[in-house]
Specification:
elongated; HTH_TetR; HTH-type_TetR-like_transc_reg; mainly alpha; DNA-binding transcription factor activity; Tetracycline Repressor, domain 2; 215 residues; 9 helices; TetR/AcrR family transcriptional regulator; transcription cis-regulatory region binding
Length: 215
């Protein structure tokens, strides 16, 4: 017979284990959902698909995320955090502003290489047309554009007034270029390395910023 003292002492240790088990299960669900959303698109993915991939019941996924929109939003939040953290860390570790451009571009394309379905989930406009999940993809894009804008400001000469219109024009242009390059690389049988793409982008941007500096 278990004594009351033993039962009481066992209860606290059981709760952290349940939390660990749930965290591990949620990670498995999100990883599977990211793959399936990336391969089949939002409309082509069902909760049954995800449940079968992970080996759990569909009601459990509904319990965790509420709906397919909720599951997709959770995938977006996870990938967005991973991508922005990866790029931000690379930028912050660079020795100077010019190298930060290169490091940020390398980190962006390397992340997409390491997470091949991430692109479709994060910013593919064909994934969704409306609703909270579509709004969330716009937020991902806006966060990346602001990160680029920060790098642009870092590379302007000291003492030069910051023209926010110019900064946004450059940042929006770079964002569009990186998105198109990401699509091209995923479809190419021999894509250039992240380093080569980053160096070319850096050279183009650096020349453009020097032109802005002279005006």
């Amino acid at each position: 017979m278990t004594s009351p003292t033993a039962a009481t002492s066992a209860a606290p240790s059981a709760a952290p284990k349940r939390r660990r088990d749930r965290a591990a299960r949620e990670r498995e669900i999100l990883e599977a959902a990211e793959r399936i959303f990336g391969e089949r698109g939002y409309q082509g993915t069902s909760m049954d698909d995800v449940a079968a991939q992970v080996g759990v019941s569909k009601p459990l996924i509904y319990q965790y995320y509420g709906s397919k929109d909720g599951l997709f939003l959770a995938c977006l939040a996870r990938l967005r955090g991973q991508l922005l953290d990866t790029v931000s860390d690379a930028v912050m570790e660079a020795p100077d502003a010019e190298d930060a451009l290169y490091a940020g571009f390398v980190a962006w394309f390397q992340f997409l290489d390491d997470h091949p379905q991430a692109w479709s989930v994060l910013v593919d406009e064909g994934m969704l047309s409306a609703g909270p999940a579509a709004e969330a993809t716009d937020e991902v894009r806006a966060a990346f554009i602001e990160l680029i804008a920060t790098m642009v400001r870092m590379n302007l000469p000291a003492g030069r007034p910051v023209d926010e219109d110019e900064v946004q024009i450059v940042a929006q242009s770079i964002s569009g270029a990186t998105e198109r390059l990401a699509i091209w690389r995923t479809r190419s049988t021999t894509p250039p390395t992240p380093e080569k793409v980053a160096r070319t982008l850096q050279d183009l941007l650096w020349q453009g910023l020097h032109t802005l500096k002279s005006t």
